[in-house]
Amino acid sequence: MKRKPFKVQAVATLLGISVDAVRRDSDDAGLQIERQGGDGPKTRLFSVENIFDLAAYRSKKYGIVAKRQLIFTVYAPKGGVGKTTKASNLAVTLALMGVRVLVIDLDFQANLTISYGYDPELTHEEALESGLPLSTCVNYHFGHLLPQWQGNGAGATLDQVIKKPFGENGPHLIPSEVTLDRLEALFTVEAIMSKKPELAIARWLANSRSGQNKDIDLSNYDVIMFDAPPAKNQTTRGALLASDFVIAPVSMEKYSTKSVSYLAGVLAEMDAEHGKYPELVILGNFYDMTRVRVAAQVLALTKQYPDAWLNKQVSSSEEFRKVLSDDEGMPLALARPSSNAAHELRDVTKALVAKMGIL
């Protein structure tokens, strides 16, 4: 996919460094940066891959390393709260901080996969007819990597499944498409046979991160992030049980105490049944403290869940809608780095990094 290039100032904003540091470190890293044509100044034009390569170089140069490997799920019991938008932006912002990120799209509607520039509905034939690269298509999903799917002779290798929408050093993606819905049927069969399918994802991750799974090695990722569908099915439950944290975006425009209470109840069930559950983090979205209703909701949330409320929020912004119509396959944090929304997303990510102790 051809994406617009970035000028030096935009790169500096994305990485939170000076323009001089961008120039110096990109030269030191030996990055191949295009120059603007014509008779004017030969302005550097960074590709999105260049930016993540520079972030990785700086991470290595300055010794920025993850203190711990984490798994977390972005989940909300109801749709329309900005869950997938936050997940896609969190992943790229973490990668810009030098964190090695794997995002797993667990929703067969594949909105996160689409936000990164892929078309789950596109066949190879349609791609060729339209002049699109075959890499735009989605041939595999998370299910193909699990023993439940491979036992039916339809598995795939990690190299076949994984997508790298922003290059080697950007967030990596295990995409989704409509047939992922079959995974729930396979888990249901296991539930009938008393095989505890809700633990399958945790077992798979443990084996894949420890080296016990010779075909799938996930040990090089600092963060593995699930974007889970709203339904409390076996797949979502499995992702939650495998996670250290669950990030729950809450719409401050349409907030209902029922959704957070419901999620708290789900976590309590997990604790009672399995003796473990992910730590809850509540992220305020569509936030406007000038509205009396929002202020009252914040007060109620912080009183009931004082340790879960994140101290940074994301306001309502038309910028999110505009990015969706750009058709460049980039979330807002990348596409509009100077916007107020992007600034808030960076602040939210920093708050999460601090709360979860990643760096």
TrEMBL record:
Residues 72-270 form the AAA domain. CDD domains: ParAB_family (cd02042). It comes from the Bacteria. Pfam families: AAA_31. This is AAA domain-containing protein. It comes from Massilia eurypsychrophila.
